[in-house]
Specification:
The structure holds 2 protein chains of 2 kinds. In chain A, strands 2, 4, 5, 6, 9, 10 and 11 form a 7-stranded mixed sheet that branches. In chain A, strands 1-3-8-7 form a 4-stranded antiparallel sheet, with no helix packed on it. In chain A, 0% of the residues lie in helices and 59% in strands. Chain A contains no helices and 11 strands. By secondary structure, chain A is mainly beta. The relative contact order of chain B is 0.35. Chain B is mainly β. Chain B is globular. Helix content of chain B is 0%, strand content 55%. Classes of the chains: A mainly beta, B mainly beta. The interface between A and B is medium-sized, with 18 and 17 residues.
Chain lengths: 110, 110
């Protein structure tokens, strides 16, 4: 197994509530990424990290924040969920080469 | 703006034939290129990567790179129904980030 897990796998939440998605790796890779994938849009980068406490915004970062306090964990938080954030969220890890993806989190905001 | 372009398809290929998937990229500074396969409802998985001009073969898969034309392709020989999936092309930029195409949906008809 690639050593990357996402939790939860599925979540339904109400509009306006905060939501945190977790990505955990056992590979000790430096880089971690959060993507969302929607029909017709492909993979869109939300935020990424290049080390502990080092993060940066991607192309669709509005409404999202991240934290990386340990090498192995990268958290994605939706501060106040909206219906437009209903999506499949993928975490990915990299040591500078290709990415390895987690299994994804399907988030529904109602 | 760094871009990776793919025909969205669907590309329909008879079983046993060669499937040819194509991709162009805009950033001449890109050095490494990746092909991922994504089954419906699953996460992307790495098939091949290539960084030298020419061909790279791995089993039934051949990746081709032409940096002068900024063109990458993936050939799948003896196509099987299990090859039916969406294929994502990605170019790595100078910050080690992958720039993603939107994917080509491939359908192998028995």
């Amino acid at each position: 197994d690639a050593g990357i897990t996402q939790s939860p796998r599925h979540k339904v939440t109400e509009t306006g509530t905060p939501v945190t998605l977790r990505c955990h790796q056992t590979e000790n890779h430096r880089y971690m990424y959060w993507y969302r994938q929607d029909p017709g849009h492909g993979l869109r980068l939300i935020h990424y990290s290049y080390g502990v406490k080092d993060t940066d915004k991607g192309e669709v970062s509005d409404g999202y924040s991240v934290s990386r306090s340990k090498t192995e964990d990268f958290l994605l938080t939706l501060e106040s969920a909206t219906s437009s954030q209903t999506s499949v969220y993928f975490c990915a890890i990299s040591d500078g080469g290709g990415y390895t993806f987690g299994s994804g989190t399907r988030l529904t905001v109602v | 703006q760094k871009e990776v372009e793919q025909n969205s398809g669907p590309l329909s290929v008879p079983e046993g034939a060669i499937a040819s998937l194509n991709c162009t990229y805009s950033d001449r500074g890109s050095q490494s290129f990746f092909w991922y396969r994504q089954y419906s409802g699953k996460s992307p998985e790495l098939i091949m990567f290539i960084y030298s001009n020419g061909d790279k073969e791995d089993g039934r898969f051949t990746a081709q790179l032409n940096k002068a034309s900024q063109y990458v392709s993936l050939l799948i020989r003896d196509s099987q129904p299990s090859d039916s999936a969406t294929y994502l092309c990605a170019a790595q930029d100078s910050n080690y980030q992958l720039i993603w195409g939107a994917g080509t949906k491939l359908i192998i008809k028995p």
